[in-house]
Amino acid sequence: MPDRAIDALGRFARVVSDAxxxxxxxxxxxxxxxxxxCPDGVAVYVLEMDGKLRLSAERGVGPAANLEVDxxxxxxxxxxxxxxxxxxxxxxxxxxxxxGASLYGDVVMLRKDHEEPRLTLVDGLIxxxxxxxxxxxxxxxxxxxxxxxxxxxxxxxxxxxxxxxxQMAAGVSHDLRNILNPLSLHLQVITRALDRGNVADAKESxxxxxxxxxxxxxxxxxLRDFSRQSKETKSELVELDQLAQEAxxxxxxxxxxxxxxxxxREELAAPPQVMAVGSEIVxxxxxxxxxxIDAMVEKGTAIVVRSGQDANTSWIEVSDDGPGMxxxxxxxxFDPFFTTKGQDGTGLGLAMVYAxxxxxxxxxxxxxxxxxxxxxxxxxxxHGPLSGRAGIAPSxxx
Length: 398
Ligand SMILES: Nc1ncnc2c1ncn2[C@@H]1O[C@H](COP(=O)(O)OP(=O)(O)OP(=O)(O)O)[C@@H](O)[C@H]1O
Ligand SMILES: [Mg+2]
Hints:
- By secondary structure, the chain is α+β, with helices and mostly antiparallel strands.
- The chain has 3 domains: 3-149, Beta-Lactamase (2-Layer Sandwich), CATH 3.30.450.40; 163-226; 236-397, Heat Shock Protein 90 (2-Layer Sandwich).
- It is built from 9 helices and 13 strands.
- The strands form 3 sheets. It has a 6-stranded mixed β-sheet, covered by helices on one side. A 5-stranded antiparallel β-sheet has the order 3-2-1-5-4, with helices on both faces. Strands 6-8 form a two-stranded antiparallel ribbon.
- A hairpin with a 5-residue loop joins strand 11 (363-368) and strand 12 (374-381).
- The longest helix is centred in the middle third of the chain and has 77 residues, at 119-195.
- It starts with a helix and ends with a strand.
- Mean pLDDT is 86; it is low at 385-398.
- Residues 287, 291-292, 295, 320, 322-323, 325, 329, 333, 338-341, 345-351, 374 line the site of adenosine-5'-triphosphate (ATP).
């Protein structure tokens, strides 16, 4: 191949590799063919999504080349272009734009004489253009798939938010009904009792009203914890074992006040300190301990609060040998307002634990099965070099 042709191919390869749209590639091809091979006229057609070939770029032939043909008629395209462009054109050359198994378009070159064009250069330029078109098509496909994926992700996030909001609304309205219905009943009792001059009955109902109101306030309190309106938000370096001991004391007291004595064993292994809001972690652990105490009423002998460390985490877990959870309960246990305890539960305990761990950049794992007990572990990222003793200290009863 003469040097000039090699130069032309090299230059074309460089410019065409920078073009990322099919239309630009075809315009560059028309320029190159017109300049180096066929100065009389070039028309480049692109195969569009509807299966038709349409003019994408032309040099020297003008608007007469603006034709459209079906894919099936591509064999007649060159003849038709030549006929449309007038009798001054006496010869034509036709090349399809093919890369791999895909056809991207068709190139028609018209001549006003019968001189043989430099076919090697023609084919070289067309092959380079076809490869660039195939790359552009892949890029376009990837961009389209990426946009679809992003749209699907956004839709999923929207529907997930709506689901959580719906669940929250259902839970709040359920709890409000549980407070307002008894309040209105007690109010009726008080009105009737006062009408009859029966102050003792009125007083009794007022006491019950107070208890209901107290329950309502507790629910609001837990909702506030859940949505993190909590006042204390400062993280500091904390010892998980120390927080565990505080939580055990509170959990035991709660159990005792509900008439449920609990045996809680400590297996604390002094894992490295972590950055956390201490009070939030204590309240998450109390939730886990109270849940375990609740579960032990049905079956079980002991609760274990254990701590330890893995590669980059310090963890603390509450484990019981109670009745465990069915797959359905385990699936929903962390959903806000999901409870199997009827009036006795708000279903915000584990949702709060989950939200707390998210805020701390950590995670929660749940291990449970029917009749196999339940273990819920809170894992915290450890910043800086690990310290503390590894493994598990000998257990002791508390
Ligand atoms: N240790 C456990 N053993 C068995 N089931 C459990 C245990 N912990 C939680 N669950 C199940 O998960 C559900 C949700 O727990 P969560 O703490 O969120 O709410 P709750 O305990 O029902 O209500 P609240 O925390 O307001 O008292 C419970 O109702 C129970 O069915
Ligand atoms: Mg609970």
